[in-house]
Amino acid sequence: MLLTTTSGLALLRFRVFSFRAMTSTFSGPSFRYISPTELGELMKSGKVSMKDYAVVDVRDDDFLGGNIVGCVRAPSSKYLTTVDDLVSKTKDVPKMIFHCALSQQRYSRFSAPEMSISRILFAFRGPKAARIYAETRNNRLNPGETPTQEIYVLRGGFTEFQRLFKGDPILVEKWRKEVWQGY
């Protein structure tokens, strides 16, 4: 059955609303945003990856084309089955930075004609992974214990980070021009 433009848009709004309802927390976000520039400064400050901070890349097939140096790869397609292990490995790391390709949080930044539902949901992976990580970590805390980790999402995701730093081998590795043409 073909959907009319109006009913197709209504379906899209319903799916996005349902997705937002599934992924939101009642107490507000469990993370803050960090800019690409702030992350670049952190990485060049002498701080050590996996000791002072960890960058978690939750992209799937779109991991091809480059990545942030020293990132931990945790594909979103397997994230729910690997998040416990990630929490264990990074429990002593004070700053956790999550990202996907776009690291968007809100549907309202997009207009329906510009993006397909898969592209919209694709943009939510970084914030969703950060929230799931925080919830998993918090579930392991003893009663009354307060989490000490700071959790961030990279604003603009890898798309923005690579746009700014693709030529800096301290920050970006395995960058492939042909993947990023048109971004």
Please describe the structure with a list of short key phrases separated by commas or semicolons:
about 180 residues, alpha/beta, Oxidized Rhodanese, domain 1, 5-stranded parallel sheet, two-stranded antiparallel sheet, 7 strands, about 40% helix, globular, disordered N terminus
Average pLDDT taken over every residue: 79
Assigned CATH superfamily = Rhodanese-like domain
- The number of strands is 7
Mass-distribution shape: globular
- State the CATH topology: Oxidized Rhodanese, domain 1
Describe what this molecule looks like in 3D.
The protein has one domain (28-180): 3-Layer(aba) Sandwich (Oxidized Rhodanese, domain 1). It is 39% helix and 13% strand. The chain is built from seven helices and seven strands; from the N terminus they run H-E-H-E-E-E-H-E-H-H-E-H-E-H. It has helices at 5-23, 36-43, 79-89, 117-122, 125-139, 157-165, 177-180; strands at 32-34, 53-57, 67-68, 72-73, 95-99, 150-154, 172-173. The strands form two sheets. It has a five-stranded parallel β-sheet. It has a two-stranded antiparallel ribbon with strand order 3-7. Helix 3 packs across helix 5. The longest helix has 19 residues, at 5-23. The chain is globular and about 50 Å long. The protein starts with a helix and ends with a helix. Mean pLDDT is 79; it is low at 1-26, 106-113 and 115-123.
